[in-house]
Design a protein that fits this description.
The protein has 120 residues and is an all-beta fold. It contains no helices and eleven strands. The N and C termini lie far apart (39 Å).
């Protein structure tokens, strides 16, 4: 069974860059036609898809976040990373890494999530 674990700082100052890493075990991020996604859930709101990296290395981003988002992978560590620049308090959310067959909030497996708060 695939397991995903998010890691990164829980507090980020406004205008800085949020950086989260997802470590995958039980399966390789380079095998199979899977999309490795980042999704988030702001307080009191629903899930929002942030972006994804395909097993081939292609990346996809939410149009509303595209200008500030970068997703990359380190195949040697079986990890993929989210960077979100110029954060504001509106980026405060629980961030999840997931794996599925598409670029959306549906998933086969999901990490437990990590709270990120943007505040000075």
């Amino acid at each position: 069974q695939v397991q995903l674990q998010e890691s990164g700082p829980g507090l980020v100052k406004p205008s800085q860059t949020l950086s989260l890493t997802c470590t995958v075990s039980g399966g390789s991020i380079t095998i199979g036609n899977y999309y490795w996604n980042w999704i988030r859930q702001p307080p009191g709101k629903g899930l929002e898809w942030v972006g994804a990296i395909h097993y081939s290395g292609s990346t996809y981003y939410s149009p509303s976040l595209k200008s500030r988002t970068s997703i990359s992978s380190d195949t040697s560590k079986n990890q993929f990373t989210l960077q979100l620049s110029s954060v504001t308090p509106e980026d405060t959310a629980v961030y999840y890494c997931t794996v599925g067959f598409g670029t959306n909030s549906d998933y086969l497996y999901r990490g437990q999530g990590t709270q990120v708060t943007v505040s000075s």
